[in-house]
Automatic annotation (TrEMBL), chains A, B:
Enzyme nomenclature, EC number: 1.6.5.9
Naturally occurring in which organism (per UniProt): Conexibacter arvalis
Name the record gives this protein: NADH:ubiquinone reductase (non-electrogenic)
FAD/NAD(P)-binding domain span: 15-337
Transmembrane segments: 382-403
Pfam families, alphabetized: Pyr_redox_2 (PF07992)
Length: 448, 448
């Protein structure tokens, strides 16, 4: 069964192309499992990433594989899905083809298209900050962040002046959303608990962790009680929470911060970016192709049924899409993916029309440090250890595969007991890497 | 206690500098734990690598952290050891200082020096093969090899001609020593068992794994019975074992092989190098500085007591040293590291003089595929499942830390049951990476 063979089939099956193998894309593909359709799932990476735990890879707790199963392995038992690794760089909505740069330049035709390409970080127009303030959206990013954090401690061991040491031991996290809060908390734990007995020329507990945000509180989407609690927990861990404070300049030696009191310089060799998010550039591409538009974060404006204007055969879901009242979280993408699967089933006559999509808020939560969390779930505002257990339970439940669940729990327990982290590799290739190389395009028509 | 503070101490303690945190260096440092000495352990990486399991990282079984604990964490409880991350690039044997490029250009003085810098791979004068035939000595190497192997399968899914697909599905391993045998076996398992149900445009079992060696048999140092058995096991797994066959050219599209029958071309997009080994360049540097010489593999010729001629205060151990009758294996480095620790103890009057160093051969073994191995241990030549259990037991015993032991065994069991591998990440930064950047030197004198 060649990749190009199906077109010769007299009774050609309905072709669904899914762009993006994140929460939305994978759930959509799974939702199509019993339907007589041919699904092609395209992603630039070979793995499905469980992003909510990415910060644990960046701080040495979990290994990349534990939060990122190979995409193909998710569809071993689902014969109607083909996985294709490549970069989507264009759509022809009239001809109904997706342009993909993979091993070759491919044109993949569809009858129904689902675009679920997610979001990336945004430097608010300051892309020049990127090399000195790495963000965290991919596993390569997380490996780079981990290498940077651990390298700073190694370099501090060799510092020649107190100023140099202080700059090496100052970690600034920009952005106090869930990722920033969790990252800052884990760096504090790393310095105060894990590395405590491992350095000889300084006490790692001297390390300063700064969490900056222009907003007046941490975790803006959470209820006020939880925001205040999270801030208190962070301060207890020794994190300097600086609110109403904006990054106005970042270079290799530090960050310029502007707040009420004016502008000041924070010398730091490790600035990490957890602030802005913008939709995948595919959102703008689709907007242009279909005559709709995007919002300030580059998110595509879709119709209520998640389709494009004039193109009911094209769905867009997840973080790349703006829908009033629906937050940019994994749950939303998952629910949308499932919904689109049902709509497709109805269209090809296999199932009744589903009710209009409605987002069910299942709550939000964030961990702080080792055994604390804040959770806004089941209509309750929970904090401390109980919130941490619920956080753990929910994340384990959504992690793919029993093996990964088992290993993640074992590592969390071990980490608390041994006060160590398993994955403390500083990767030279991570540190050296800059932008990824673009594959050489070579035009070949598939499914011609 | 600053890194530079000790020199002001009136009763300065004996200073031991260890270059290299592999098996030899770490064991030497551990052997000095109860002595009144100050140990500085210098390594270019921040982790201690358990090299015998590196091939399992390269084939997606284990995570980097599971075979590479952070160097510092090994010495948490040993206050007399300082770990320093940096590249050693020179020795001044007269002034007794080691030149290190770390965060700064450092000069680290010693009273006793132990150099245990190991070996790297050698392309036998064909360094131009390196980009197209990556070797495997570091974790970054293993990540690159894994990314290359998995990418070839992804690209094969998109191949446009049978020839292209065949080249993408041909994996050539050059060198049939333990690393080459284990790597070839694991690639075969990957294709035949793990990926079996994951591709749609070809059957992964079509993949061809070629194991090449110029020698007339696999595993040259093993007894003949085991060599024959290993070869048979490899063929059963579907590996093409080609002996008496020499690589004469390697490029991005394949390898030129010369054997009895003449020269031929094997089209392959994934050639892996497990053939030559040469001593660290520090061996030649020490040879020049001390007036001794190196052998063909660049290994340093040392005296019977593992010291340099004219410099009894300088020891060299492990794979970078040539000693008749001692193989280049972990056991030799471990035993030498321990021995040097005892010699130092005797010299500073803390222990009686130890007997002259004698290598105790504890046997050799190699795994083949999932549950087979050959082992030459306890005077017995073992094969099959029993050898595999012994292999597993010994490797687990030598792995550092109960957590890693537990996780490795759990993964091996899970892999057999689930027919999957945990760590199947294709890393873009691994694929893009070339040579590592040299740190900018800046001269600062330490311990002046």
């Amino acid at each position: 069964m060649g990749w190009t063979s199906k077109d010769n089939d007299e009774r050609r099956r309905h072709r669904v192309v899914i762009v993006g193998g994140g929460f939305g894309g994978v759930r959509a593909a799974k939702a199509l499992r019993r339907l007589p359709v041919d699904v092609t799932l395209i992603d630039r990476n070979n793995h499905h990433l469980f992003q909510p735990l990415l910060y644990q890879v960046a701080t040495g707790m979990l290994s990349p594989g534990q939060i990122a199963p190979a995409m193909r392995s998710l569809f071993r038992g689902q014969d109607n899905v083909r996985v294709l690794m490549g970069d989507v760089h264009g759509f022809d909505l009239e001809q109904r083809v997706v342009q993909v740069a993979g091993q070759h330049e491919l044109e993949v035709p569809y009858d129904t298209l689902i675009v679920a390409a997610g979001a990336t970080h945004s430097y608010f127009g300051h892309d020049e900050w990127a090399p000195d303030a790495p963000g965290m959206k991919t596993l390569d990013d997380a490996n780079r962040v981990r290498s940077r954090i651990l390298l700073a401690f190694e370099q501090a061991e060799q510092a020649q002046t107190p100023e140099e040491r202080a700059a090496l031991l100052t970690f600034v996290v920009v952005g106090a959303g869930p990722t920033g809060v969790e990252l800052a908390g884990q760096i504090a734990i790393l310095a105060r608990k894990i590395l405590k007995k491992e350095h000889r020329s300084f006490d790692p507990r001297e390390a300063r962790v700064v969490l900056l945000d222009a907003a007046p509180s941490v975790l803006p989407p959470f209820p006020e009680k939880l925001r205040r609690h999270a801030e208190k927990d962070l301060r207890k861990l020794g994190v300097d929470v600086e609110l109403g404070a904006m990054a106005v300049g970042i270079d290799a030696d530090g960050i310029d911060v502007r707040d009420e009191a004016g502008e000041r310089r924070v010398p730091s060799r490790t600035v990490l970016w957890a602030a802005g998010v913008q939709a995948s550039p595919l959102a703008a591409m689709l907007a242009e192709a279909s005559g709709t538009s995007t919002d300030r974060a580059g998110r595509l404006l879709v119709r209520h049924d998640l389709t494009l204007p004039v193109h009911p055969e094209v769905f867009a879901i997840g973080d790349m899409v703006a829908r009033p009242g629906v937050p940019g979280v994994a749950q939303a993408a998952i629910q949308e993916g499932r919904h689109v699967g049902k709509v497709i089933a109805a269209r090809i006559g296999e199932q009744p029309e589903p009710p209009a999509f409605r987002y069910k808020d299942k709550g939000t939560m964030a961990t702080i440090g080792r055994t604390h969390a804040v959770a806004n779930v089941f209509g309750m505002k929970l904090t401390g250890l109980l919130a941490f257990y619920i956080w753990g339970f929910v994340h384990i439940a959504y992690l793919v595969g029993w093996g990964n669940r088992f290993e993640a729990v074992a590592r969390w327990m071990w980490t608390i007991v041994a006060r160590n982290r398993r994955e403390r590799l500083i990767s030279q290739t991570s540190l050296d890497s800059s932008a990824r190389a673009a594959p050489a395009p070579e035009r070949v028509r598939v499914h011609a």
